[in-house]
Write a structure and sequence with these properties.
Blueprint lengths: L4 H15 L19 E2 L7 H5 L20 H23 L3 H8 L6 H22 L20 H9 L7 H24 L14 E2 L12 E3 L8 H11 L5 E4 L1 H8 L4 H8 L3 E4 L13 H13 L7 E5 L11 H7 L2 E3 L3 E2 L9 H15 L12
Parallel strand pairs: 1-8, 2-7, 3-4, 4-5, 5-6, 6-7
Helix pairs in contact: 1-13, 3-5, 3-6, 3-7, 3-13, 5-7, 9-11
């Protein structure tokens, strides 16, 4: 697919902003084995089917409504505490919706209440844990610290009381974040409602999979999906940017695109291009690996292609399924191949033309505030 300059600039603006203006200071990536958060980025080259699978309403947030700096640990943690206090009651309210209400809201024909309940339990527990992580340096005079020491199971009830008394100066911020919380929680609950009949990144299936939720704070991947692009275009420019920022990333490549690039560059040239970056598998084609009859060959073919082109130190034994979709019984296969399935727990929706680059940044900052007590990022790059 041809890359238009507007889309290219949009992708770079988001990545550059999160890597510089928002200070990713606890960055640990090269030859990564641990993950805290995955942030999914996918701007270009997705099929119409992929786009139609996205949410009807994309959750967006203007983080600039928050009046204090967030590019330092103390400032970020305070904003994180505030965001968690607002998000928790909104999430709990959504959990009380009936099956009939959710079917109508999500425009689906059936749902799994068990999957929804599992997801909701995990999310509410996460909010309480993340709040405590963000509260280690709390001051008694800080309104965001009023829930320090509260047990996770009591966090939502206390958050509801606190958010009823948020300072008037933060009214616009609170109103917009509440709207964002409702839209984002709906995005994720819809995925949970469809799981596992239609599986996705919303939950792991077996021990070969991870999405970062279970790991220690302040560990993350920066990654890009779907490349490589044509020579001297997106992939090359992104790697140049990352190198200039002294950051490395994991590139989940499509075998088809990798093979096309090898027709224009030698193996040595491609190895030099990726340099200190890491390369992992996204399948041979961008198809659902839950429905594709040749899904195993897709992975094996790409695995062989990468191994025959790049040095061992440039590769990492991970597979990210397109759309997050994979066979429910695929665990044994991935174990035999020596691969883990790398999902994600933050989705930027940047492939979605309904959302601007500024809105993507705002969405990601809001999700980072909710999901972790310090910045963690993984991006999804499309060709």
């Amino acid at each position: 697919m041809m890359i238009n300059q507007n889309a290219l600039s949009r992708s770079h603006k988001v990545v550059y902003s999160l890597c510089t203006q928002h200070s990713l200071k606890s960055y640990q990536v090269m030859k990564p084995r641990l993950v805290k958060c995955f942030l999914l980025w996918g701007l270009l080259g997705l099929s119409t089917a992929a786009i139609s699978a996205g949410p009807t309403t994309v959750a967006q947030f203007d983080y600039r409504l928050w009046p204090e700096a967030i590019n330092n640990p103390a400032g970020f943690d305070k904003a994180s505490r505030a965001a968690l206090l607002v998000y928790a009651p909104v999430l709990e309210k959504l959990s009380k919706a009936s099956d009939a209400e959710l079917l109508a809201k999500f425009h689906i024909k059936s749902l799994s209440r068990a999957s929804i309940n599992d997801w909701m339990t995990q999310q509410l527990a996460m909010l309480g844990r993340n709040y405590q992580l963000a509260a280690t340096d709390c001051q008694a005079s800080d309104w965001t610290c009023a829930v320090v020491g509260v047990k996770p199971e009591n966090f939502v009830a206390q958050a509801r009381l606190i958010t009823a008394k948020i300072p008037v100066a933060l009214t616009a911020w609170q109103q917009q974040l509440s709207g964002f919380a409702g839209d984002y929680a709906s995005e994720q609950m819809r995925l949970a409602a469809l799981f596992p009949k239609v599986n996705s990144e919303v939950s792991v299936i077996n021990a070969q999979e991870f999405n970062g939720d279970e790991l220690a704070d302040r560990l993350f991947y920066l990654s890009f999906d779907d490349g490589p692009s044509a020579p001297k275009s997106t992939t090359d420019e992104l790697i140049t940017m990352l190198t200039a920022q002294q950051k490395s990333a994991v590139f989940f490549v499509l075998g088809e695109n990798f093979s096309s690039r090898l027709k224009k560059n030698s193996k040595d040239e491609l190895a030099k291009l990726y340099g200190q970056q890491c390369v992992a598998i996204h399948g041979y084609q961008h198809q659902s690996h839950a429905k594709w009859a040749d899904w195993q060959q897709s992975i094996q073919r790409t695995q062989v292609l990468i191994a025959s082109t790049l040095a061992d130190k440039q590769t990492v034994a991970l597979f990210r399924p397109p759309y997050g979709q994979r066979k429910v019984d695929s665990g044994a296969f991935f174990q035999r191949q020596g691969l883990r399935v790398a999902l994600w727990n933050l989705d930027s929706q940047d492939w979605n033309q309904k959302i601007s680059s500024d809105a993507i940044i705002g969405r990601m900052v809001a999700l980072m505030l909710i999901k972790t007590s310090w910045y963690c990022v993984i991006s999804r790059y499309s060709r």
